[in-house]
Automatic annotation (TrEMBL), chains A, B:
Residues 9-163 form the DJ-1/PfpI domain. Keywords: Lyase. It comes from the Bacteria. It is an enzyme of class 4 (lyase). This is DJ-1/PfpI family protein. InterPro entries: Class_I_gatase-like (IPR029062), DJ-1/PfpI (IPR002818), INH-QAR (IPR052158). It comes from Sediminicoccus rosea. Its EC number is 4.2.1.-. GO terms for molecular function: lyase activity. Transmembrane segments: none annotated.
Length: 227, 227
């Protein structure tokens, strides 16, 4: 069993569960090291204010075996940052597994590496994946070759368990699931646009409209650079 | 609608998802403020190394409306710390809602406030609740008066959504669930000792035996002080 270097990217305005969900799982893989990389050593502030410290600078990362990319509103700025984008592209090309959660898939898409691949992302940004040449699949976890993409926010748990099983076997993944008592019982059935009350989906889309419009502009600008 | 001051306690060797799961939900309640409180302003290091910054010192907290207490191996030391214990007791007495995740229930139990109450905690420590005079209930989320206790780690999402509905109504909770795409699809059915493979449960219990023995000693020592 070869040692695994696992690394997550962080940036301001990430959605912290995109990072912390997978951390709970992947930091428990046998014979592995897990570190958070960022452009500066300042704490990254999540969309709602939670502050998380990086472990090292981007340029200090070895070639990672597993690259993990979270999402959140900060993805728009990260996509437009050539230093971050080039780091993601280079690490993703060399890694044996690349794992995105939520709109982290858009950041990966911005490198051009999802062209022709099946992928998923947060439901509200799902229609943007084809702008990067990816096939948008409405599933919670999508695997295409070495790329594992998970849907919105909490889907990172499911994606990380899937990846844990792929990297270290089913029993390891089941043991982590048992430890973290992952036997979810949501009190409502409101986790997707298909199951949530229609009025709520409409008001949520309306509330996100300007964010999504801005994001789509950012996505089109980056995509134009390589198409 | 009265403004809600929500506060989470952190300490070294917490299990970070006990904090970050509820944060994802409770930081999105309308007309509320959410802050992390700690004994010092140093970053708290989670059991697996994730470093999170507190927002303020314990003594800077106003009387909180909602007190949130995470768990993790660090609970043993926190229970034995009179400053932390007294802060939890005082805040819990004045709060309108007290929410624990995982072994955070033991820290709350150590204040004596769970005596005669129904409660839950991580499956491996479940048998310790009665030492504090609580009735241990094998459910994912247990509500008894103003106390909401959730089982291990990831149950904090379910507990927080339950609490969100209680504090701000069902539609708010459903909207947060939709935003975070909480439509869990665990790839295995291994999240409880009842559903996981028996051999895995046995090996997990064996691996945790010394931790649990140490914890039970800590629990009995604290309980002896008030019984």
């Amino acid at each position: 069993m070869a040692h695994l270097n696992i690394g997550s990217l962080i940036f301001d305005d990430l959605d912290q569960v995109d990072l912390t969900g997978p951390h709970e799982v992947l930091s428990r893989l046998p014979d592995s090291t897990w570190k958070i990389y960022a452009k500066t050593m300042a704490p990254a502030r999540d969309m709602k204010g939670l502050r998380i410290l990086p472990d090292a600078l981007l340029e200090e990362a070895p070639q990672l075996d597993v690259l993990h990319v979270p999402g959140g509103f900060g993805v728009d700025a990260a996509m437009a940052d050539p230093v971050i984008l080039e780091w993601v592209r280079r690490q993703a090309m060399g890694a044996q597994a690349v794992f995105t959660v939520c709109t982290g898939a858009l950041l990966l898409g911005a490198t051009g590496l999802l062209r022709g691949k099946r992928a998923t992302t947060h439901w509200a940004s799902h229609h943007m994946l084809p702008i990067f040449g990816a096939t948008a699949v409405n599933e919670r976890v999508v695997e295409d070759g070495k790329f594992v993409t998970a849907a919105g926010v909490t889907s990172g748990f499911d994606g990380a368990l899937h990846l844990a099983a792929k990297l270290r076997g089913t029993e390891v993944a089941q043991g982590i699931q048992l430890y973290m008592q992952y036997d979810p019982r949501p009190p409502f059935d409101s986790g997707t646009p298909e199951t949530a009350p229609a009025a709520l989906v409409a008001s949520t889309r309306a509330a996100m409209a300007s964010v999504l419009e801005r994001r789509e502009k950012a996505v089109r600008a980056v995509a134009a650079a390589f198409t």
